[in-house]
Sequence to fold (342 residues):
Amino acid sequence: MNDVAAPENPGTTDIGGKSMASGCKVAIVGATGEVGRALLAALEEAELPLAEVHALASAGSTEETVMFKGRGLLVSALDEFDFARADIAIFAVPADVASEYVPRARSAGCRVIDHSTAYRLDAAVPLVADGMPVPSADLVACPSALAALLLPVLKSVSGIRAVNVTVLEPVSVAGRAGVRELAGQTGELLNGRGVEAAAFPVQIAFNALPVPGPESAEALMDELERLLDLSVPVVLSAVRVPVFYGLTVAVTLETEADEDLGRWRQRLAKAGLHFENGEEDQELVTPVTQAAREAGLYVADLQPLPAPLRGLRLWLVGDNLRQGVARQSLHVLGNWIKDFKY
Ligand SMILES: NC(=O)c1ccc[n+]([C@@H]2O[C@H](COP(=O)([O-])OP(=O)(O)OC[C@H]3O[C@@H](n4cnc5c(N)ncnc54)[C@H](OP(=O)(O)O)[C@@H]3O)[C@@H](O)[C@H]2O)c1
Fold:
């Protein structure tokens, strides 16, 4: 027995105490990871018609269970799974693992949504974010969490000439290993002991680690071009901070023309962004208080750029896992379930 509770009647599967004879059979590939667990939590809340949920991970995790609707799903080994048993698989594994197993899933007739970098910039694979039309392909890629958070902001502002982003990254962007390292180092240091770094190049607890290299700026620029047809210079700075969940992003957008701040505010609110403190933008928004493990995007400190510059700047806060990842693939999943009548 691997995934959902064993069906009492052939052809039906019991999920969360509710018997279903039909519905979509979903596999979460990488179910033991940070993204996989966030996907399961989001699936629980989504109330989609699901017949089966398969939790897959490496062979080393087959003794583990992951929680779904108050019950433990036993994890199955990815390398032994027959993808013909699933209608749709959401992949949340490293890119090299996705590259190996996504083709297997597709050739077994299973549609795939991938969260890794394996197909994100592949012109043959649609890149789909929340709110975008979902193609009837058998594979779609989802954007990076940062691109997913920026998208509603960038869509709301016209005439963008340059994008300048500084992102404070939580340790969960490095997966479970990152989360464990921050927790472990914090405990050791508070107890007066020394620490070793493994998931990060040096100590992350009580520290800030600038992420070097223009590679990620290029990747973000490519993603924005694919998602928005926006081809403008992007300056990206990233710092890993000792926060578990939630991205904090300082965004500066240079625009062709000046715009009334109220208009920008209206457009951002229409795009679903939350402003703290009603009409005032002075309230603090932080990953811990607003965003960690929740869907939703929060804006604070929206300001025009000082002359002679034109444009705006703001703080943006959203969870990398629930908003940046799970919301994106559940958009695709929900549409596919509707379109293909699973
Ligand atoms: N974390 C983020 O904020 C974020 C945001 C956007 C996209 N992503 C992408 O999402 C993917 C997962 O990230 P994560 O943060 O969830 O990482 P993670 O916490 O390290 O989890 C990795 C998952 O992949 C599984 N896995 C690793 N190697 C495997 C193998 N050879 N066969 C089968 N399963 C294997 C692991 O299973 P075991 O437990 O058995 O090892 C675990 O379930 C990555 O591609 C990442 O780039 C992450």
